[in-house]
Amino acid sequence: MRPDFAAVERAASGRALRLPRVPHRGRLGDVRASSVGASLELHDFRQYAPGDDLRHVDWNAVARTGELYLRVRQDEVSPRVEVLLDGSASMAVSEEKASRAVELAAWVVTLASRAGLDATLTVTGAQVRRVPAASTRALLEVVDFSGREPFDVALRRGPPLSACGLRVVVSDFLFEATPQSLAERLARDAAGLMLVQVLDAEDAAPSGGAGVRLVDAESGEALERVLTPAVLERYAARLHAHQASWEAAARRVRGAWAQALADRPLEVLARSELAGLVARP
């Protein structure tokens, strides 16, 4: 199943992105400067391109990632929206899960762009790439979800997270990490944070049966198990506890947590589970 970008447009129609009441930088209505200037206000990071002024290179980012990133400064900054998409292999255990994750990321960027906000998309994976709103569809059309590292590990190889009005993270959050520690990291320099968990039907409720072979999507490690009712019950309890930990961590940093089942169309999710991202009429 390929991402349905027409569905993204339909789900965005008549909706506006809900922003925190006090964006981290800039004010609603501020007009972003059209060129990079010498202002002391740090606006963003982007990869080096031939001809760029090397005086703007962020050497800390170079040391961490091995790639050249520039500090971008602007005279005025409108509220920014930063979308992070988990590009690890577990996000593509089914075509439906991968498609819904891509559509969700595209939907948030579309809502931000229609409001005249400065939006960026960062996709983790084998490579970590950040692009502006205008280039998001081109990147999302070729996302292969080939990352073999957990999202939190891959994120450290990317450009630094930028100060923003809203940060939206799209992941299955099915990796071993301390929810509170990562939530604090994701909330840093963001006025608002939304964590969106995308799950395949088998992630949420495995079907069970005899002689099931479970394979870790990232490591390839296999485990032969019989998914008896007792095993499935323990899995459900652990998943519920895991989700509760993430939801509590999001609340502690004044963020929000939402769950999105991949078998539900984006337009349905926009009216229900993802309503927290949409401004009220």
- Would you report the number of β strands? 10
Report the end-to-end length measured between terminal Cα atoms: 33 Å
Strand content: 15-25%
Based on CA atoms alone, the radius of gyration comes out at: 19 Å
Please tell me about this protein's structure.
With 281 residues, this protein is α/β, with parallel strands linked by helices. The protein is 31% helix and 21% strand. The strands form 3 sheets. The chain has a 6-stranded mixed beta sheet. Strand 3, helix 3 and strand 4 form a beta-alpha-beta unit. It is globular.
Give a short synopsis of this structure.
This protein is an alpha/beta fold. It has helices at 5-12, 59-65, 95-114, 136-140, 151-155, 179-187, 201-204, 229-252, 266-271; strands at residues 42-47, 69-73, 80-85, 118-123, 129-132, 166-171, 193-199, 209-215, 222-227, 256-261. Residues 22-42 and 213-217 have low confidence and may be disordered.
Write the layout of secondary structure elements.
Elements: H1 5-12, E1 42-47, H2 59-65, E2 69-73, E3 80-85, H3 95-114, E4 118-123, E5 129-132, H4 136-140, H5 151-155, E6 166-171, H6 179-187, E7 193-199, H7 201-204, E8 209-215, E9 222-227, H8 229-252, E10 256-261, H9 266-271
Parallel strand pairs: 3-4, 3-6, 6-7, 7-10
Antiparallel strand pairs: 1-2, 4-5, 8-9
Features:
10 strands; Rossmann fold; 9 helices; globular; two-stranded antiparallel sheet; 2 domains; alpha/beta; 281 residues
